[in-house]
From TrEMBL:
GO cellular component: nucleus
MF terms in GO: methyltransferase activity; nucleic acid binding
BP terms from Gene Ontology: methylation
Pfam families: MT-A70
InterPro entries: DNA_methylase_N6_adenine_CS (IPR002052), MT-A70-like (IPR007757)
Source species of the chain: Aegilops tauschii subsp. strangulata (Goatgrass)
Protein name, as recorded: Methyltransferase
PROSITE patterns: MT_A70, N6_MTASE
Organism lineage string: Eukaryota, Viridiplantae, Streptophyta, Embryophyta, Tracheophyta
Family, similarity comment: Belongs to the MT-A70-like family.
Length: 176
């Protein structure tokens, strides 16, 4: 699969090769009271798609995929997938959950050119995302990327966010 300098994860995830892509994760562990401050570097490979990638070690880690490096903060986890696997992220313990949930949905769009670029999902299907089950009981910040279509904005404000239990929404603008 040909890729540009930017990883197109939508394209990669839709490829028949997606189950075989792996991210190499590098953890640095102190060796002890060494004067040189050397570290023991431990590497492991983890499937990149349709599996939760967790960083539960003592510090942050560095992930490498197709020659690009990604910082993975301590205690973080992520999943690169379509919505069919999102329930795999729900914590087993109801007293835990995520403090930050980032959602970049494949919004429906009337533009034929965009429909050809990536698959979309009917907006109403997003009502069933288990955001409350994913969120930490003490609360979470939900970041949702939307387009500037007024109809979509009304749907998000009047139906989607209330169905997820989101309170006090705030808008931020991304200026390209």
């Amino acid at each position: 699969l040909e890729t540009s300098s930017e990883n197109n994860f939508v394209e990669l995830g839709g490829s028949w090769r997606a189950p075989f892509y792996e991210m190499t994760i590098c953890f640095q562990k102190p060796l002890g009271q060494d004067e040189a401050g050397t570290c023991d570097v431990q590497k492991r490979s983890s499937p990149l798609f349709n599996r939760v990638v967790r960083v539960e070690e003592n510090g942050e880690a560095e992930g490498e995929f197709q020659g690009r490096l990604y910082v993975l903060p301590k205690g973080s986890c992520f999943m690169t997938t379509d919505f069919t696997h999102v329930r795999d992220l729900i914590p087993d313990n109801p007293n835990t959950g995520y403090n930050l949930i980032v959602i970049d949905p494949p919004w429906e769009n009337g533009c034929v050119r965009q429909k050809e670029a990536y698959p979309t999902l009917p907006n109403r299907n997003l009502l069933y995302l288990p955001v409350q089950e994913l969120a930490h009981p003490a609360g979470a910040l939900v970041v949702l990327w939307i387009t500037n279509r007024e109809k979509l904005r009304r749907f998000v404000e009047e139906e989607l966010l209330p169905s997820w239990g989101v309170k006090d929404p705030t808008e931020f603008y991304w200026l390209k």
